[in-house]
Write a structure and sequence with these properties.
Helix content: 25-40%
Distance between the termini: 16 Å
Number of domains: 1
Number of strands: 5
Order of helices and strands: EHHEEEHE
């Protein structure tokens, strides 16, 4: 399933640098029904038992800027072959 992930200004405000479970992208995934989602510079793990997917370059650059304390803007991206969420 293709999954569009939208990182909002609220996700950015509530996100925590260098914390895989609380980065803005992980928070956006939590809203979409993936409460155990974690995000690193290399992958998104949707939940412990649902697997992971590599991240697009656009996302890696965004994470690096966020973790460095730079100003970042909301954005969206699509993950192909994402696992089905557990709940909404």
């Amino acid at each position: 399933m293709n999954l569009k992930i939208t990182v909002t200004a609220k996700d950015i405000r509530n996100g925590k640098t260098s914390q895989a479970s609380f980065c803005p992208i992980a928070l956006a995934c939590h809203r979409l029904g993936y409460p155990g989602a974690t995000v690193t510079h290399d992958y998104i793990r949707f939940n412990f038992d649902l697997g992971e997917t590599s991240v697009p370059k656009k996302m890696t650059d965004w994470i690096s800027k966020f973790d460095a304390g730079e100003v970042v803007k909301p954005f969206s991206f699509t993950v192909k072959n994402a696992p089905k969420p557990r709940s909404l």
